[in-house]
Design brief:
This protein has 13 helices and twelve strands. The strands form two sheets. A seven-stranded mixed sheet has the order 8-7-6-9-10-11-12, with helices on both faces. Strand 4, helix 6 and strand 5 form a beta-alpha-beta unit. The two termini are about 45 Å apart.
Length: about 350
């Protein structure tokens, strides 16, 4: 395989113009296509049937590393392109270095765009969707083939033989300093938590938790939350889901993550997302729970590790720790006492869940 087998954006645009002159349509799709499996082949055949020729925009090796971490891709871009070009459904492959293929869409102006059923039109990247709409492209979301995915294949490979069990894999989501993340790292280093942190995600590009992850050689990713300062946009929810699936994580740990997770994260990782809240739930849900407790005249409060569901701090509790509220306490006094309890309780609870997961 050599670079001459690949097409340039200009060559693909010329193909599109040639087809248009004949009243025919070019289908455009994009992806990593790291380990090709039956799901890919069926999807590509269905996509090709939407038009008269198909071009695949394939992420370069650098782009894959940015999207999926330093262990990917498994196969280099030239090998991936050669395999794709060997399929009857594929007429051209063009490689791009960006995380998004917006500029390629703008150059090629495809008549048809195809994407897999783990997306909806609403969860497509906003820039890519705007470029497709500007080009007048018909957008088709094609169903996934159940049980066929690169992530599932990699998980089977990573499991290894029975004598070398795969470590329990955590993803940590945080928006700020990451003190509970530090406590998790300390527990792993001391051997009291038998797990590994596979991925750290943040909605805040400047969050210390990302810096700490990189210092420990952990894949650290900023996810653009979208324009609303209080909510994660649908493309961000989709990106988080994709990155968690690609990392093959067993448990998603929220550590000071300030925005609520919604679909498709919640259903994809149902029963596998936990949070620690600074009160003895169900008492004092929501923001600044220590101030709520103090204002209510409570003599004790604490922290709760709980599963995350669609409600606000309504998921089933897993473990709790109690701290006193003393006469003369300020809100900061109570908050610091709770924080110390969290740093002890959270790693211990994760260790218990990890042990149960390995036994299961």
């Amino acid at each position: 395989m050599t670079a001459t087998h690949l097409s340039s954006p200009a060559q693909v645009a010329a193909l599109r113009d040639s087809l248009a002159a004949q009243g025919k349509r070019l289908v455009f799709t994009n992806g990593v296509f790291d380990i090709l499996h039956a799901g890919h082949v069926r999807y590509l055949n269905e996509a090709r049937a939407l038009g008269d020729a198909m071009v695949i925009a394939m992420n370069s090796d650098a782009s894959v590393r940015a999207l999926k971490g330093p262990t990917r891709p498994v196969n280099g871009q030239e090998d991936r392109a050669e395999v794709l070009l060997g399929l009857r459904a594929v007429d051209a492959v063009v490689v791009y270095d960006d995380e998004r293929c917006t500029s390629l869409i703008q150059t090629i102006q495809p008549q048809v765009y195809a994407k897999g059923g783990d997306y909806t039109v609403e969860t497509l990247n906003p820039e890519e969707r705007a470029a497709l709409q500007a080009a007048g492209s018909d957008i088709h979301i094609l169903p996934l083939v159940p049980g066929r995915s690169t992530t599932a294949t990699l998980q089977r490979l990573q499991s290894g033989p029975a004598s070398t069990p795969r470590r329990f894999r955590l993803a940590v989501l945080g928006s700020g300093h990451g003190s509970n993340f530090d406590a998790i790292l300390d527990a792993i280093a001391s051997g009291t938590l038998d797990a590994e942190v596979a991925l750290v995600l943040s909605d805040n590009r400047d969050a210390r938790i990302l810096t700490r992850a990189r210092e420990h050689g952990i894949t650290a990713v900023h996810v653009d939350p979208g324009p609303d300062p209080a909510r994660l946009a649908a493309p961000a929810q989709k990106e988080i889901t994709d990155r968690l699936r690609a990392a093959g994580v067993d448990l998603v740990v929220l550590a000071g993550f300030l925005r609520r997770l919604k679909e498709p994260v919640l259903s994809t990782f149902a029963g596998k997302i936990i949070n620690v809240h600074p009160s003895l739930l169900p008492a004092f849900p929501g923001l600044k729970a220590w101030e709520q407790a103090l204002a209510a005249g409570a003599t004790e409060t604490g922290c709760t590790v709980h599963y995350v569901d669609a409600g606000l701090d309504t998921g089933p509790p897993i473990a709790q720790a109690t701290v006193p509220i003393l006469p003369g306490d300020t809100p900061d006094d109570v908050r610091l006492r709770i924080n110390a309890a969290e740093r002890d309780l959270y790693p211990r609870t994760i260790a218990r869940l990890a042990a149960a997961g390995r036994e299961g």
